[in-house]
TrEMBL record:
<feature type="domain" description="Beta-lactamase-related">
    <location>
        <begin position="55"/>
        <end position="375"/>
    </location>
</feature>
<dbReference type="InterPro" id="IPR050491">
    <property type="entry name" value="AmpC-like"/>
</dbReference>
<dbReference type="InterPro" id="IPR012338">
    <property type="entry name" value="Beta-lactam/transpept-like"/>
</dbReference>
<dbReference type="Pfam" id="PF00144">
    <property type="entry name" value="Beta-lactamase"/>
</dbReference>
<dbReference type="InterPro" id="IPR001466">
    <property type="entry name" value="Beta-lactam-related"/>
</dbReference>
<protein>
    <submittedName>
        <fullName>Beta-lactamase class C-like and penicillin binding proteins (PBPs) superfamily</fullName>
    </submittedName>
</protein>
Amino acid sequence: MSNTIGGLFLIGLVLLTANSQEQQAVEKPVRPKPANSFEEIDRYLQAQVDTAKASPVAGIALAIVEGQRLVHAQAFGVSSLATKQTLQAEHNFHIASISKTFAAAAILQLMEQGKLDIEQKLVTYLPYFKLADKRYRDITLKQILNHTSGMPDVEDYQWEQAVSDEGAAERWTRSLTKKKLRAAPGKEFYYSNLAYDVLADVVAKVSGTSFEHYVKENLLAPLQMHTSSFLLSDISPALRTSPHSGIPLSVNRVYPYNRMHAASSTMNSNVVDLSHWIMANLNKGVYQDKQVLSPQSIALMQTPSFTVDVKANRRIGLNWFIVAYQGETLLHHDGADEGYVSTLYLVPSRNIGFVLLFNSDEVNSYAITEHILQQLLARYPKNQH
């Protein structure tokens, strides 16, 4: 399965307008108790697990943020059908394309430091980058960030190879010489995991350290996302979930990890950690009084930079997708890879956001996302903030 889910989820939203020791090993951070219960949402998500024949679900984790507070975090189902371990909110998932929001943030952070300029050509930073199409010389970092580079998508992620060495990013960039553009740079929207993966090499060359280390030290650490990482080896076995596919649902033989696809797809995280990312994005880049990204960078990520679909009024910032929904402007990114689906939404006008993580890829995530969204829009009226 390709994780070109950003576009697919946009379409889906429009169409929907419609073993015990392991458990003890999971550390539970103290979380604030919500002022009001979210029992209806919890019942609904539990029902999705209990009635999995219609839409196979192994486990679902949810976090809801109101302003700078994590008001609800809960999990339903199991971390693995093989072990039947009860899923907890602190369990980690492969979050697929939500990874891109961190890759984009890393690029913008480096721009804040004066180490790069997103308006500059990619070849400025990676002179060995080359495609079988002379127009490749015109591709800018900004065009990669908003998927207008014209570059094609990944055809085979080769998850079974589980590439994990530090040279993977540069090898990926150097492997693209036979690829041709789908469109002239800057002219059309083509969702490209392939292009995003090149950004890991950019971050490494500009920062002087690996992409994964840069993100960990400069984004995840200040965000206090201590159990998240782009390196699978960093994730405690006690915190891992298993990917599930098929009907009937079963545990996948292969876990989706290949360091060549780090920037587009391979971050592992949980809903508690991701709630910190939501808070920073709702608060002009600040998390617990620490400026993780500048307000200007947050604005660049969240301001429309290209129209994806004129008729449906679907746009993209520098990575966040921006959609009109029932009179509201929503920012979101979604993801799907073998055995996992993820979705993260921000509603800036109501100062709320939520993240849903699923460790199965047959789940009807569109319907579940819509239900949670409807509940939260009803709960948090516009004029409350």
